[in-house]
Every structure is written in structure tokens, then in C-alpha cells.
Amino acid sequence: MKRLIIILVLLGSFIGGVFWYGSTLPEQTHTSVSQQFMRSDKDIRELIFNFHLYPKWREDVYAVKEAPSTTPFHAWTETNGAGKKTLFQMVAFKQNGAQTDIIIDIIGERGITLERLNFKITGHDENQSSTLSITDDRLISNRVSRVVKHLLSQGTNNIDSYFLSINNKFIGDALREKRRKATKTPETVSPKAIKPETTKPGPAAASSSPAPGSATTKKATSP
Questions:
Q1: Strand 99-107 and strand 113-124: pairing?
Q2: Is the pLDDT of residue 162 over 50?
Q3: 8 versus 62: which is more confidently predicted?
Q4: What is the bridge-based pairing of β-strands 129-139 and 28-37?
Q5: Is residue 41 within 8 Å of 123, Cβ to Cβ?
Q6: Model's pTM, two decimal places?
Q7: C-alpha–C-alpha distance, residues 18 and 7, integer Å
Q8: How buried is residue 25: exposed, middle or buried, by Cβ count under 10 Å (0-12/13-18/19+)?
Q9: Looking at per-residue confidence, does 121 or 21 come out higher?
Q10: Domains and CATH numbers, the chain
Q11: Which of 36, 72, 93, 124 is at a distance of 20 to 30 A from 133, taking alpha carbons?
Q12: How many other C-beta atoms lie within 10 A of the C-beta of residue 189?
């Protein structure tokens, strides 16, 4: 009985500690990660903006379907491998020269914004490379969830999945291009027409006298 009481006290202390630690963590979290790519800002921008192609390159996105939008931009639902559907709403798209900002909200039940993803794309070196920065602003009201997020993942899971997907997409594109060049049939080059050589006439051919041993015919003359 005493052992059971001790276990219950320790368990209660642990749970109380988790709740207390969760209350010290901010309800609104802000996480930002950046990565540079040897691709133009246009390539990155088209990947993020064109949600219809997400199933072709995004990790764990098997289907997308356009949804009613509450902004001038697109809204869509994504279906993952487990069949879970998530609603996304694009809320901003700003382009200023080589810099583009795209803001996408992840919408929960009753239209509440659960997360806000800010994609900042900056082109460099005359669009030979670009930097993608992804910021994840998230509201976590549950104190236990705050502790789990803080201790285990630091809240970068969603951001990491985007970078992993983009890297795999560009690596796949490079490999396909390499295979295409390797299997491409070289163009057939038609051989040049060989001009027949002309033999320069020798002295015998140039002379009007018949060659030795050749038959001659004399024209008969009247006496």
C-alpha cells in the first residue's frame, strides 16, 4: 500500500511538473529555417505557388483538391498517406524583384488558423542561386503539446518536410536529365560527297601525234 502511494505521488508530481513547464512556454511559437539552392528564385516560387503539383514532389502528399477560398488567393485540401485531410489557405503573395513572399495558413476546425507558414524566396547571382527561408508561426494552447514540441522536435517537422521534398525534387530532376542525355541518340551526320579526282592529261594525251603502236587511218587524196 505504501509503495502504491509513493508511485501515485511520483506520477502526480511528474504530471504536475509537465503542466507547470508547459505553462512557462509561450503559447505562440516562432520557428525559422533557411537553406540555399543552386536554382533560380523562379524555380522555387513555382514549386510553392503551384499546389496542383504537390503530389508529384511533396513528401506524404497523395492528393490535393481546390477548396473554397476566403481570400483573393487559392485554398486547397491535402490528403496524406493515412487519409487525413488538411485545409490550406494562401493569404498573401508579394513579389519585389528577386524577392518573393508567400504566406499560407493551415486551417483547423471552425476555421481557426493553426499554423502560418511564411515562404521568403531571395534570388542571388543573377538568378543562378536562391535562398528559401520558411517561418512557422504556430498557436499551441495545450500545455502538454508545448512540452512535447519543445523537447522532441523544436517545431521544425513541417519545415523540414518542405526542405526534404524540395531537395529530392531537384536531385531527381538532375538524375533524369543526366539519363536523358546519356540515352539520347546522336544525330546522324551525312558523309560529305567525295569529288572525283581529275587526272591531268600527260604529254602523250596532250600531243596531236598518235601514241606509239596505235592504228592510224589516212584520208585518201585524189591524184
A1: antiparallel
A2: yes
A3: 62
A4: antiparallel
A5: yes
A6: 0.70
A7: 17
A8: middle
A9: 121
A10: 25-174 (3.30.530.20)
A11: 72
A12: 6
What cell numbers appear for 129 in the block?
Answer: 542561386
Residue 203 CB contacts under 8 Å (≥ 6 apart), including other chains: none
Count Cβ atoms below 10 Å from residue 110 Cβ, excluding itself. Answer: 5
Please give the C-alpha separations between residue 169 and each of 37, 45, 94, 136, in angstroms, as whole numbers.
Answer: 12, 14, 24, 22
Strand 75-79 to strand 85-96: parallel, antiparallel, or no bridges (unpaired)? antiparallel
Q: Write out pLDDT tens, residues 91-109.
A: 999 999 899 999 999 999 8
Q: Residue 76 and residue 82: Cα distance in Å, rounded?
A: 18
Does residue 180 register a pLDDT over 50? yes
- Is 1 buried (19+), middle (13-18) or exposed (0-12) by CB count in 10 A? exposed
Residue that is written with C-alpha cell 481546390 in the block:
66
Share of the chain above pLDDT 70, in %: 72
CA dist., res. 148 & res. 155, Å (int): 9
d(CA 142, CA 115): 14
Return the pLDDT at 25: 64
